[in-house]
Amino acid sequence: MILDYGSGNLRSAERAVRRVGAEVEVTADPHAALEADGLVVPGVGAYAACMAGLLSVGGEKIIGSRLAGGRPVLGICVGMQILFERGVEHGVETEGTGEWPGTVDRLHADVVPHMGWNTVRAPEDSQLFAGLDADARFYFVHSYAARSWQLESGLPGQQPKVAWAHHGEDFVAAAENGPLWATQFHPEKSGDAGAHLLENWLRSL
Question: Residue 157: its pLDDT value, please?
């Protein structure tokens, strides 16, 4: 299920998930989003605008309820960023969903936005990146990111697994934390590597 809250490349995400074998719908209906086997939360554009859209459909409650019940959620791009406590863009601080501690702010790099293909350093025991080579490349388009990871522990057997990428500095490229997984890059735009990653997520459902 793809959550429609007015932000994100909904149709490209829908096509990408369908291409790897899933039955998928785009919905803003809270009941359908709560009951789905897996929920994708995409997002593009400004952090504040994405949060406003999410709040307008009760998306933060949907995400929280799903996670409380151990039901998988996959955040993509700004859909990952809003999982953190706050985002700061152009001096404006916006409260996020607070699923993870930390702040999303501007990358310190000579060229921003970070746009194009990049490699990711994933933990060896990552389920999300299982079967992918270390030189696999993923497609990024962003000026802001979580530049540190502050959640040190999780539930027993669910220690957070954090993947990193580098553009001017290290930033969080993906994270797996119990039923909540997310990527800063766009798997739906990342060719075969992105399709493999989405297959890994579907296998986890």
Answer: 57
Q: Is 50 tagged catalytic?
A: no
> Helix or strand or coil: residue 204?
helix
Find the catalytic residue in 114, 142, 167, 186.
186
CA distance 201 to 140: 19
Of 14, 176, 188, 199, the active-site residue reads 188
CA distance 3 to 42: 7
For the chain, percent of residues with pLDDT exceeding 90: 92
Residue partners of 110: CB distance under 8 A and separation at least 6: 168
Catalytic residue check, 85: no
Which residue is it, tokens 């899933």? 22
What dihedral do alpha carbons 203, 57, 182, 68 form, nearest 10°? Answer: -70
The pLDDT tens digits for 92-105 are 999 999 999 999 99
Q: Residue type for 119, please?
A: T
Q: What is the pTM of this model?
A: 0.96
Q: What is the pLDDT of residue 75?
A: 98
Pairing of strands 161-166, 100-106: unpaired
Tokens of 21: 């074998």
Amino acid at the residue 2: I
The mean per-residue pLDDT over the stretch 113-139 comes to: 97
Among 50, 60, 77, 196, the one annotated catalytic: 77
How many CA atoms lie within 13 Å of 109's alpha carbon, on the beta-carbon side?
Answer: 20
